[in-house]
Specification:
heterodimer, A: mainly alpha, two-stranded antiparallel sheet, 11 helices, about 5% strand, B: mainly alpha
Chain lengths: ~290, ~325
């Protein structure tokens, strides 16, 4: 492989890895939205919170794997608490109340982590097994990013198996279509909602810990990811998991090739992509309803 | 209802109070009052969308920021530009932007509207950061000359004097607020409220919903531009983060929610509460955002109609007791 081809491939894999992380965050967001109609603006804050939990776990136990397993679960518990004690109560006031509430919670989390961990970026070292480079057809590529892609694909596989092959998945899909009807059939929809919310924040949590060794942990972590994840959900179509996956991959590739070729305007490209997509399909690429 | 005569008295007392305010409280508190007034106008312009038309925007900073940059750029590049045209430059810049964006956004509502604005607002923020040769990026545009307020042959007031600037800013903001208040009382303003309550029915009655939304949207954006323009003159500095930052978009939404959504004076109460909160919490702690978040959560949990709603509730109780 010559140098420029290698560069293209490397940027492509970079983009895939970022797209996968983006999908982990956006899928939780779109699942929660599709199911409950709640646009959780605190989602990215949970993503960041999990990265901080991961840092703390690593500091206490010294094991990346423990951090990767425990931190997202702790984050999910926080998510469930938010859903159960706050979100459910303001549901009566409509979307506006939910949006404002999640903005409030995200402000609390963002400022809270600054109060506890400070504003410097904290390093989170990757496990020794995943350090270093691997040779793919003459291209030296970091193992860790390949690990991220593999992990996200595995999660995607499990998620689709659960959603489309199990009874629980059937209930979730039915509740997305018509929550009231499912409730009338004798299924405890509020509990299903709570589980979905917890699962969504868990996915964001996994993404947070997974990306921490690459980006380090700092309060600004939520900004970039939050914005990109919202773009993915909006462009993919609110509540569409397939749309979120496709747009995540496109978004990841846009940002990695964008940095390569138009570094000056890379940050704007995602927004341009969104503006063009929405001008063609206002409801998003795979969206049917608002 | 308050008697017409006593209402006039209230206005006169208010005007005299504002006239004496700088003398009574000094320059420090005059500046705090100007900041409050700027945010009050900004939040009222947002409430026109949020409270009256039911459209929640998370990117209103793009109009505030454009107004600020419009005035700052005009003053920095045009030699000898008088004061009023400088404010008009900010107003027109925001007007132009809202006219361009309106066709894209009036056909959606709810979450999609909020998210599109979040994205457009961020787009403006990133552009302001990256187009350094125009906007000065993070450092912004600062130190431009503030022209005097002058009517040739009659008067020329130096606007670098904080007390004279106080009067100018309050006059412009009060005038804008009065125009907006007047607007909500016109027949068109009533259609606007009807669009919020039941867009379908307004459509069946023969009014064109997207057009109505577009007009409200443009008015809301342009008045946010005026607030931004005064902000630029007041600070003598416009930088990307303060003008277009995400917090600049969230603050008026929070003020409106805390003050009372859908009531004309609600956002003004909200701006006052936030001004006081900011002034006092920042004396004791750096965690202003944490306090803001807590206030927001508490308000939405326990007083979803905000301060104005709480006042209405008190008044209802009071009257109920009197008649009983």
């Amino acid at each position: 492989m010559d140098a420029s081809a290698a560069m293209y491939v490397a940027q492509g894999i970079h983009g895939l890895a970022y797209g996968m992380i983006l999908f982990l965050v956006a899928s939780g967001l779109t699942l929660i939205f599709g199911m409950m109609g709640v646009l959780n603006l605190a989602h990215a804050a949970f993503f960041m919170l999990s990265a901080y939990f991961g840092y703390q776990m690593l500091a206490w136990t010294g094991s990346f794997w423990v951090a990767l397993l425990v931190a997202p679960v702790v984050t999910a518990v926080f998510g469930i608490l938010l859903e159960h004690f706050l979100l459910k109560k303001v549901h009566a006031f409509g979307h506006m109340g939910e949006l404002i509430l999640t903005v409030g919670v995200s402000l609390i989390i963002l400022d809270g982590v600054k109060a506890i961990w400070g504003t410097e970026s904290l390093p989170l070292s990757m496990p020794p097994v995943l350090e270093g480079l691997i040779n793919i057809g003459g291209l030296q590529y970091p193992i860790y990013r390949l690990f991220i892609i593999a992990m996200a694909l595995a999660l995607l596989l499990i998620l689709s198996l659960v959603l489309y092959k199990t009874r629980l998945g059937m209930v979730v899909r039915a509740a997305v279509a018509d929550a009231e009807m499912v409730n009338a059939l004798g299924i405890n929809v509020p509990v299903v909602f709570m589980l979905v919310f917890g699962f969504g924040t868990w996915m964001a949590g996994v993404a947070g810990v997974a990306i921490a060794p690459i980006l380090t942990v700092f309060p600004g972590l939520a900004d970039q990811m939050g914005m990109d994840a919202f773009i993915v959900v909006v462009v993919g179509g609110f509540g569409s998991l397939g749309g979120a996956f496709l747009v995540s991959i496109i978004g990841g590739l846009i940002s990695s090739y964008g940095v390569q070729f138009l570094s000056q305007y890379a940050a704007v490209l995602m927004f341009v992509f969104m503006a063009v997509a929405l001008a063609i399909k206002p409801m998003g690429l795979f969206g049917e309803r608002e | 209802m308050i008697h017409t005569k006593s209402r006039w008295l209230l206005w006169v007392v208010g005007a005299v109070f504002l006239l004496l305010y700088p003398r009574l409280f000094g320059i420090y508190y005059s500046n705090i009052f100007v900041t409050f007034a700027i945010y009050a106008l900004y939040a009222v312009s947002l409430n026109l969308l949020l409270g009256y038309t039911g459209l929640l925007s998370f990117g209103h900073a793009m109009y505030f920021g454009t107004g600020a940059y419009g005035t700052a750029l005009a003053l920095a590049h045009i030699e000898g530009l008088p004061l009023i045209p400088a404010v008009l430059a900010g107003f027109l810049a925001a007007l132009l932007l809202s006219v361009c964006i309106a066709p894209l956004v009036v056909r959606v509502s709810g979450n999609a509207f909020a998210m599109m604005h979040l994205a457009f607002g961020q787009l403006m923020f990133v552009l302001a950061l990256k187009l350094r040769h125009i906007t000065g990026g993070e450092d912004g545009i600062g130190g431009f000359d503030i022209p005097p307020f002058s009517i040739p042959g009659v008067v020329s007031l130096d606007m670098t004097d904080p007390i004279l600037f106080f009067y100018f800013a309050i006059a412009v903001i009060a005038g804008s607020l009065w125009l907006l208040w007047f607007f909500t009382k016109t027949p068109f303003g009533q259609i606007m409220v009807a669009v919020r309550d039941n867009a379908n029915r307004v459509d069946y009655l023969g009014f064109r919903v997207p057009h109505t939304k577009a007009v409200v949207y443009v008015i809301s954006g342009s008045f946010a531009g005026i607030a931004g323009s005064i902000y630029a003159l007041f600070q003598n500095l416009v930088a990307a983060y303060d003008a277009y930052g995400i917090l600049t978009s969230f603050v008026p939404v929070m003020m409106t929610m805390v003050g009372g959504v859908g009531q004309f004076f609600g956002p003004i109460f909200g701006a006052a509460i936030f001004g006081l909160l900011d002034e006092f919490t920042s004396r004791y702690t750096d965690r202003v955002e944490l306090v803001l978040g807590l206030v927001l959560v508490l308000v939405i949990m326990y007083a979803p109609h905000g301060f104005a709603g709480f006042m209405t509730y008190l008044r209802m109780r009071w009257f109920a007791k009197k008649t009983a």
